[in-house]
Design brief:
mainly alpha; Farnesyl Diphosphate Synthase; 2 domains; 15 helices
């Protein structure tokens, strides 16, 4: 059986990242017991991403190892990784399905062989693997999932994933990845291979404003989702939306150039956007 690399085995470091995420999954708005389960799901999501992005050696083989850990967690066995042991408890206590976890693994398998997406539809299909499962799991942990909420959650999660892409253009380029749809790049008379050198051009700004507006429309679905949820869970969803909108505001201010440095919304802007979002009906 393939072993996970040391970098991916540090459960404490992975859990610590939960406090640093741009859109923290375990908001204190959730009840304590719910937060525990959310942190366990986050641990898995972070683990699979660390393997897909940072592991040395055969990443596909290491992802095979992670799939075998899921076999143990869902088959009543004993996973070997501390994060998977915790996840197995959440799976049992919240009766979670396996499919969303498999999709997260599949997204990282895809990352090993696909670095660019021709169309926005193809990019959204990738987000259906890499982001949307997290929203489904959050709703299921809160015992609030149904098909209608699931569809709204998919839009919000895709929007948040797109925000991350626009924030990390340079970081992704170093990994050989570009998440701006190639058809859009060409539509604005730009070259995918020369996008970084064109980052100060009017065409680049116009391209990214186009992507930001599509992203904003997806995030706006969070208002409808939050209205369908009760109490603090609905409030947490509104704040996720506010975080994404705050990040888009920062990107617009810097004219979307994140090739040299990543963009992260300042706390004051997140707080302001949260207040603005909560004032809406």
């Amino acid at each position: 059986m393939t072993s996970a690399p040391p970098a991916a085995l540090d459960a404490a470091a992975i859990r610590a990242q939960a406090r640093e995420e741009n859109f923290p999954v375990a908001s204190r708005l959730f009840p304590r017991d719910v937060r525990r389960h959310l942190v366990n799901v986050y641990g898995f999501a972070r683990l699979v991403d660390d393997i897909g992005d940072e592991a040395t050696g055969d990443r596909q083989a290491i992802l095979d190892w992670l799939s075998s850990e899921l076999d143990e967690a869902f088959g009543g066995g004993s996973p070997s990784h501390p994060l998977m042991v915790a996840l197995a408890e959440t799976v049992r206590e919240r009766s979670l399905p396996r499919a969303p976890f498999d999709r997260l693994v599949e997204a990282n398998r895809q990352d090993q062989v696909v670095g660019r997406y021709e169309t926005f539809d193809a990019l959204r299909a990738y987000c259906a693997l890499s982001a949307n499962p997290v929203g489904e799991l959050v709703l299921r942990i809160c015992r609030a999932w149904n098909p209608a909420r699931g569809a709204l959650s998919d839009d919000v999660c895709t929007g948040l994933q797109l925000v991350e892409f626009w924030q990390d253009l340079g970081e992704d380029a170093e990994k050989g990845r570009l998440y701006v749809p190639l058809e859009d790049v060409r539509r604005f008379d730009l070259s995918p291979d020369d996008l970084a050198s064109a980052a100060d051009s009017a065409a680049f700004v116009a391209l990214m404003r186009f992507e930001a507006e599509r992203t904003r429309a997806l995030l706006a679905r969070g208002r409808e989702l939050s209205r369908s949820l009760r109490g603090r869970v609905g409030l947490a969803v509104r704040l996720y939306t506010a975080g994404g909108l705050a990040a888009l505001g920062d990107l617009e201010q810097r004219r979307f150039d994140t090739f040299a440095t990543n963009a992260r919304a300042a706390r004051w802007r997140r707080a302001w956007m949260a207040a603005k979002e909560l004032s809406r009906r």
